[in-house]
Design brief:
Number of helices: 8
Strand content: 25-35%
Strand order of the largest sheet: 4-5-6-8-7-12-13-11-10-9
Bound molecules: zinc ion
Structural class: alpha+beta
Order of helices and strands: EEEHHEEEHEEHHEEEHEEEEHEH
Length: about 350
């Protein structure tokens, strides 16, 4: 396991110090699996000021299609060959087809009837219920031997800086035979690693991170939690690796609860930094992919300029697919680990 980094320095004549030279460090890290690089730079104290969230959400309930008085009128239904009732239900959570699908079988699952839930008030039971509802949908597709029932993907955009257009908490749920870029590259690299080492990369990563220690956050059941070495997010990422589990359909009820508990701990840690938006993605293999381990990435999001609504992903991230993290992941891990203790 190689944790590669190229260290560089930029020298500027600093206008804030009468044009005296100032040296600014930059580190280019490579993800040990795919070689994808991430810049550790633009160093700042990871502390943001939260806006008045009550003011931000005020009035958004009126037109929310996921609120209980509208959800059964405003959302579409599946054709009867997929679900005769049209939608899937679990307690007050509803799963229905995505009105704006990006694959043959896209769905959205609400996380219940509450319109706005502050990040630290989202209960693990609620998250576990949402994931279980997604699993109900995936298991139906699997039973139907649906052609898209290959990779079972769950993602979560929470609050506007994450790309979510709605405040009401919901998951994006889709099954596809066409894995998205990052998943496909990880699976290909994981297969190469398997062929040359006869071991699963993710098992080796967890063992290496546990030994190295500085990015290891803890374990909940068979889910190991790490701070990413080469993160996607400006404030780092939290990665959960489900030991012994290759595909989403292999998740047990206990795994689902353990994933939910880990996610709420990550949320609590980033809330303490003043962050209140995040993305989550699941990265599964198929059930026959010996080289795959189901893992998920929690990545906090923010605005570079909240007054202008400037997102934290600009040309570098959007078109060069190069991420920028504004603190050392090891230092971020120190703060996040307190919640996993
Ligand atoms: Zn709502």
């Amino acid at each position: 396991m190689k944790f590669k980094a190229i260290r560089k320095e930029a020298v500027i004549l600093d206008p804030a110090r009468e044009m005296q030279p100032r040296t600014i460090p930059v580190e280019v890290r490579s993800d040990p699996l795919t070689g994808r690089t991430a810049r550790i730079c633009h160093f700042m104290r990871l502390q943001w000021k939260k806006p008045d969230l009550d003011q931000l959400i005020a009035g958004t309930e009126a037109n929310c299609p996921f609120c209980p008085d509208k959800v059964l009128k405003a959302t579409p239904c599946f054709p009867p060959d997929i679900e005769p009732e049209g939608r899937f239900f679990r307690d007050d959570k509803v799963l229905f087809p995505n009105l704006a699908p990006y694959d043959g079988l896209g769905a959205v699952a609400t996380l219940g009837s509450r319109h706005y839930i502050p990040m630290t008030a989202i209960e693990p039971e609620r998250i576990a219920g949402g994931i279980s509802l997604a699993l109900d949908f995936f298991r139906r597709l699997q039973a139907l031997k649906h052609a898209e029932s290959v990779y079972h993907l769950i993602s979560w955009n929470y609050m506007p800086a994450s790309g979510s257009s709605l405040i009401h908490p919901h998951l994006q749920v889709f099954a596809t035979s066409t894995p998205p870029n990052q998943l496909r590259q990880e699976l290909q690299a994981g297969e190469s690693y398997w062929k040359s080492h006869r071991r699963t990369y993710w098992d080796d990563l967890v063992a290496a991170e546990k030994e190295e220690g500085r990015r290891f956050l803890g374990e909940i059941g068979r889910v190991a939690w790490l701070a990413a070495y080469a993160p996607f997010g400006v404030a780092g990422d939290v990665v959960g690796v489900v030991g012994g589990c290759r595909s989403t359909l292999e998740l047990t009820a206990t795994d689902v609860v353990d994933i939910a508990r880990g996610l709420t701990r990550a949320m609590a840690a980033y809330d303490a930094m003043g962050l209140y938006n995040f993305n989550v993605c699941f990265f599964p293999g198929t059930e026959t992919d010996a080289h795959a381990r189901l893992h998920l990435v929690f990545s906090p999001r923010t605005y570079f300029n909240p007054a202008l609504g400037t997102p934290d992903a600009a040309a570098l991230r959007s078109l060069y697919n190069e991420s920028v993290c504004m603190a050392f992941p090891e230092e971020i891990a120190e703060r996040v680990r307190k919640q996993f203790g």
